[in-house]
Design goal:
Number of helices: 15
Helix content: 25-40%
Bound molecules: S-adenosylmethionine
Oligomer: single chain
CATH architecture of the largest domain: Alpha-Beta Horseshoe
Strand content: 15-25%
Distance between the termini: 13 Å
Amino acid sequence: METALLKKYNVAAPRYTSYPTVPYWENDKFDQAKWFQALSKSYHQNKGEGISLYIHLPFCESLCTYCGCNTRITKNHAVESPYINALIKEWEMYCQLLGERPKLKELHLGGGTPTFFSPAHLKQLILSIVKEDAADIECSFEGHPDNTTLAHLQTLYQLGFKRVSLGIQDFDPKVQRLINRFQTPMQVATLTDQARSIGYHSVNFDSTYGLPGQTIEGLAQTITEVVQMLPDRIAFYSYAHVPWMKPGQRHYTEKDIPQGNEKFALYQLGRALLIDAGYEEIGMDHFALKTDSLYQASQKGQMHRNFMGYTHQHTQILIGLGVSSISDCGSAFAQNAKTVEGYSQQMANHSFAIEKGHVLNEEDTVIGQHILSLMCKNKTEFSHEIPSVIVERLAPLIEDQLVKIVGKEVSVMPIGKSFLRNICMAFDERLWQKQPETSLFSTAL
Ligand SMILES: C[S@@+](CC[C@H](N)C(=O)[O-])C[C@H]1O[C@@H](n2cnc3c(N)ncnc32)[C@H](O)[C@@H]1O
């Protein structure tokens, strides 16, 4: 890949888990009443379809300095019980609002570190929320290899969980020291074997390129070890460096972070090794074996993307419970308070903890669909002639052979798959209307 191309496109760019992206939500035009109205309407229109539920479990025992997620670091496990009770209360409030217990189609426990919580507390949470047969629900959880136990795997499996996602990031001891996150290949291999023999039918590994201290040799070794364990899916994320939001990332210096060509070489190496080992590249940052449901959904054009990342099925409604969780009902978004104290206080007062949100207008909906289609299908089609402003914005990307336009369709070219965020930006009307005055997003590559 030419250096000039990398330089040109390595600009700050959103990851597009929503459109409008969170910094562009019109919070001043939003209130809880609007969210409840939009959610109830959408729920009743899509009755019977089932909803996705995301539960955020923010606690971690130690800070992984690279981490960009909403976390609370503590070794005090007394926080578990009150937090579980708050989540159960929030779910009951949603059930009351909707007039019934929504049928669940998908349930994901994310973090933070869900396996910070004891198996008994997770069981209490799931049994309070899931009243139907969990066999019909796609249940998954994120686990830290350093504290996920056999008891976690067994308990959650009995409750209906068939998918587990393990955070690997990198096995190189030098990188692990810099990001303050430790797990050995042996721990991961043992957990993967245990999960498989219990009956889990999908194991995902999260890995990251562009981490501080990462080298070509170190990453090659990590990927070699990873593919030997044959996880069904591998997320291979581009490290997002956002120290203005995550001061933990100041524990190392910019000099430690591979950038530009160096970072892109890491991506290319990882991608080549994964493809050599039989993995298919799907969507942005994701690889899967051909037997995996996400790959199969991508082949059928059924892959979907929401705040939980890529999923193999679509639900109109996603409800997020817990600190900082985002909900999406198709026509509006809402986000909960970002601190444990703020969230817990609202639950103690029997009120929702929604702090901000956005009601989509017609243009947002159309743009959101184009961006979703590009992210999931590498193409998007217009029902009318492509607006000249989009053609103009895409012109340089067409010249660089990242995308092509044929008739009413915009499609991503093979090189363009590495620049999906840049391609989506051409459609991001709100970003073009108002360029950010301060740093909002990490760089695209
Ligand atoms: C909150 S983490 C949870 C992982 C799991 N609970 C654990 O501790 O192993 C979710 C995933 O987001 C990704 N992630 C976190 N911070 C990131 C960053 N700054 N850039 C890119 N990816 C990041 C990592 O791959 C991570 O596994």
